[in-house]
Structures are given as C-alpha cells and as structure tokens.
Amino acid sequence: MPGGGWPTASLIEVLIGDNGLGEVQLFLPALAARQQAPSGEVPWLVWIAPPHEPYAPALAQQGIDLRRFLVVRPVSATEALWAAEQALNSGVCAAVFLWLKGTDDRWLRRLKLAAEASGALGVLFRPESHRFESSPANLRLLMTRGEHAVHLELLKVRGGRPGFVDLGPG
User: For residue 23, what pLDDT band results from cuts at 50, 70 and 90?
Assistant: First the structure.
C-alpha cells in the first residue's frame, strides 16, 4: 500500500465474493494498533451488521480490547448506515466496520466524509456484485477465493496502482 499500511481517516471498501475469506483478519493488526492511543484512553471499535457473531477470544488474542468493542445489529440497511455515520462522527471510534448488501453513492460519500473528519478508519464490506459501480472510497479491494489461494485485487488505490495479491491457501 502507498504509505506503508491501511489509510487512516478514510473509507475503505472491501468487495467480497463470499463471507469468510479472511476479510476481517486483514485488518486485525491495524485494529489492535489503533486502540493503542497515546493519551491512554482506549478508543472504540464498532462492527455494524456483521454476518457472523465475532469470536471474542480470537479478537482478544490479537490484542483487541473487548471492553471497547461494540457490535450493532440494526434492523435495516438505512439504520446500519445511520449507525455507521454516527459512530464515525462521534470522535471516539478508532474504526467502524459495516457490512451491507448495497447502498447508494450519497451514503458512501457521507461515510467517507465522516471518516475523514473524525480520523477514524471506516471499512465497508459489500458483495462483489458492486465491483463496477463508482465509489468515493479511497481504497477499494476485491477478495475472491481462487483454486489454491485467496486473491486480493486492488481496484482503486489513492497514490498507487491497482494490482493483485495472493493471500495464501483459500
């Protein structure tokens, strides 16, 4: 990645062919690092509408402070988007993860602006079917399962070039 890691204060969009490809594991080291605030106050990590129940022991083993980890289960996509925008705008979140089946450009722009204003990392997981839609996200990734490995395609990279990465056995 340009800059040596995940961009902060931005929206990252991860398009996935299937849940369970390791999309969350990509971000765990960054989440643990983002909770290490110099002020000593541990910022929140918020997951909105995850497709599976987070496995707390694995998160704790990666260094996630579970006392500052919140899972939100909204009843609609609109509520999920509203919750993500509020969490990003709160100023107390290190990262906000949001799983959605789809949304429109206006909401994506709102989420991007909220992440930029607060300094939080916003990560949106959507189905691969949104690949050819435009997106204001600073970084867009496509994760798919290959025959022998999970493939990560960089569709859009601010300050860099799109390309492919194999992440190991799939």
Answer: confident
Tell whether the torsion through CA atoms of 9, 113, 84 and 90 is positive or negative: positive
CATH of the domain at 26: 3.40.50.300
Residue 96 belongs to what H/E stretch? strand 93-99
Among candidate residues 27, 43, 25, the one with its CA nearest the CA of residue 123? 27
The total number of structural domains in the chain stands at 1
CA distances from 9 to 43, 96, 154 (A): 14, 11, 19
Q: What's the pTM value of the predicted model, to 2 decimals? A: 0.88
Domain-located, residue 156: no
- Please list, in sequence order, all residues whose beta carbon lies within 8 angstroms of the beta carbon of residue 57, skipping any fewer than 6 positions away: none
pLDDT by residue (tens digit) across 50-103? 999 999 999 999 999 999 999 999 999 999 999 999 999 999 999 999 999 987
Task: Please tell me the distance from the alpha carbon of residue 23 to that of residue 27, in angstroms, as a whole number.
Answer: 8
pLDDT-derived band at 169, boundaries 50, 70, 90: low
Residue numbers of the domain that contains 105: 10-144
Burial of 5 (0-12, 13-18, 19+ CB in 10 A): exposed
Does residue 157 fall inside a structural domain? no
